[in-house]
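REVIEWER CHECKLIST
Item 1: Sequence provided? yes
Item 2: Single chain? yes
Item 3: Sequence as submitted:
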Amino acid sequence: MAHDDEDLQLFDQCNVCIVCSKNLSSETAQQLATTVSQNSGETFIVEEHVEFENIAQFTHFISNTIDFKAYETACDALIPVMKPQWVQTSLAKNKLANPRQYSPDPRLFLNDVVVACGDIPEGDKDAIIGGVLAKGGIYSPRVTLMVTHLVDLSADSDKARLVKAKKLNIKIVLPHWFDDCLKLGRRIIETPYLLPDPEILRAGPNVPIQWHENKDLVGASTPDPPELPTSSSRENHRSVFEGKRVKLSSDLGIGQRLEESIEAVIERGGGTVTSNVYDTDILICRFREGVAYRTASRLHKDVGNLAWLYRLMTFNTYTSPLRRLLHYPVDRSGIPEFKGLKISLSNYVGEARIYLENLIAAAGAECTKTLKQDNTHLITAHGNSEKCSAAREWGLEVVNHLWLEESYAKWKMLPTSDPRYSHFPLRTNLGEVAGQTPLNRDVLEQVFFPSEDTILPSPGRPVMRNKDQNTTSIQPPPKGQSGDEDIADTTHGTPQTIGKSRRLSDAKKTPARSRLIPEGKENDTPSSTSSRRSKDAATARLHDIAPDIALYEKEKKRVGGVVYGGRRKSDEDRVSENKKRRSVEAQDESDGEQTDSKRQKKSRPPISMHLLITGYQKWVGNMKKEDADKRHLRDLGVMVVQDARRCTHLAAPSILRTPKFVNALAYAPAIVNIEFITSCLKKNELLNPADFPLKDQEAETKFGFSLAHAAKRAKKNKNKLLQGYRIYCVESIRGGLEAFQSIAQANGGECSLFRGRLQLAKRSRREESDDEDSEMEDEPVKDEVFLLSSLAPEHTRLWPRFRQVSRDINKTPRIVRVDWLLDMAMSQETRAADDYELTEEMAEMAGKADEMAID
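Item 4: Structure as written out by the authors:
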């Protein structure tokens, strides 16, 4: 429709496509379409899973998410994708607003933020404004109804008082919030930074950090979900499978019954199940391998795993399988650089912990429950824990989960020196932002289905050769033939070339000559030329770095691993490249005790004691002295161990409530004073441990037990003190869930995290494998279940639910302090829960006491 320039209205030259989704209903889409049409714009409303034959007809896309089929194609065509707020803002300004400020791309993590600045320094103000604009946010010089955040240093500034007086829905935050968000590259929760009483300025270092639920990990914490989901949302009239053809790969390893159930759900939603990879719209497979996987990937089909398929069924909403790391098929062998890594987790709970454990396994590393000196990395959600302190003392790499996620997304081990990976906001548990890193399709294409490969022709699928060039294109098989797309790879031939256009119609065309054949070598096929160049470059590169690899492998075997940049040649304890190592004995190797045969002038004596040490201050912050002392002790016949199950002796300065001390008591070791170590090292001989008994009358009186009597009872108990006990912990329990789990397991009990239901089934195979060394008899199941808790409000809210689910299974609920478990483990005798039980009256009194203290 033609208009004169003066008659042009706001959206006159706009053809807007509105994409409906879970967060953008059809009713809202219709209202937006009406608004645009009233201002001379053209609109088109579609569902998120609809494919477009031609998106060039549109000038703008409106969507609350990037999870719709045409998103990548729109980006390639430079068509802006904005959230619905763009329409209202454009109308208010009477001109088209900047599309970048309204992008739904999660990488622009501040795209929902409209920030105004209060009384802060000009330099800080400029930095915050620049960071917000760069990450998709908007700056407002005045406080308006559109503002979401006011940055200020005090709640008494003019703008802050205005927000309070008018009761505006604006969060007043410290500048520290923006600083932490920009350092991490993620938007974290504002709660600890909110004025007038920000938690980061008043909370002490030992105050537990509150954890918030992570919705991004729902249904995305494992690549192998255990069972088919049940959801009423599948019955909705708008189905994500409508008109879709789905192929289930043979590598899923699912039974016929489950496969039939999946097919029934897809067909009920209007979809069909096919066996032909060329006819399918969606391929569900487990591994990044096979002809079907590469073919579907090159043809830009949706390729996901069972977890992704189940999410579609559960929420009836399309999301890209690349959006979440564990919604995409995994590689059997993992990232090459991750081979041999031993990674432990700290401070991650719930779904975030399960997600990271599975991600570590998918990356090809080993996830260890406990932290030992042979670990290479510790991934932690914040910097306050015993594991973090130990890891830093041992020189391990301490990073947050972003290092793991981004290494997995880029399929290479990224350097831990990046400040983003070692940044831990003071009062934030980074488990809240786990699972936000997407996969990179370009990386996947380069590694797993490069376009230079040659697809092996299958029966009924001829390979057509272009007369003008030495390239080939894929031809789909005749109807009725599946193409044998599930045939396993028996050779390493390269699949055939196809173009890189994202549109399906272009995927079957022969690629242009200029993009495939290097200049001056028209007679060489592109696959042979590129492959030969890649191999030559890789060989040369490998030859150059071979000495460094050899030295790194030698250094990695040293106790503590490769620390930072390695060691100087002048270091006394450096492992020499030409020296040979020998093993002391099979069990000693698990503790990292590797010896140098040339360094030893005489053979070492046999091991006469396995010593577990806790609270030895001379080693704190001095890893070099610790390593030297441990070697010295080994020369005297003392093996320093980290596992309480292996210790014959325990050394401590006093009676401690550390996990090492409490766990060791269950195994009835001989307990000595820490001076035993100092004296042995000083006199260079193994002294009689009986001359150094641990005496701590004050602690025995305080905790109400005798150390000598506890040792006798431990021998009698044989690690079965808590056999049959079912113990649960609240999530933010003081001391951490792992500590109480290890204490309970050392004494034959079970300790689990309470998530609103009680799991009284038999233990998992993983838990059984952890207890291979202990011969557990059938446990007498008790009529009581115990919850370790405190009087904190976030804990007391769980009490009614715990009591309800306990009584539902005919169990008596007992809510107790953590001292109940600690006192039993230390005294090695059972104690009645009555003296430790928590009640609502106690919680109410504690709350009143806190209020009086504040007043």
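Item 5: Key structural point noted by reviewer: The mean pLDDT is 79.
Item 6: Recommendation: ____
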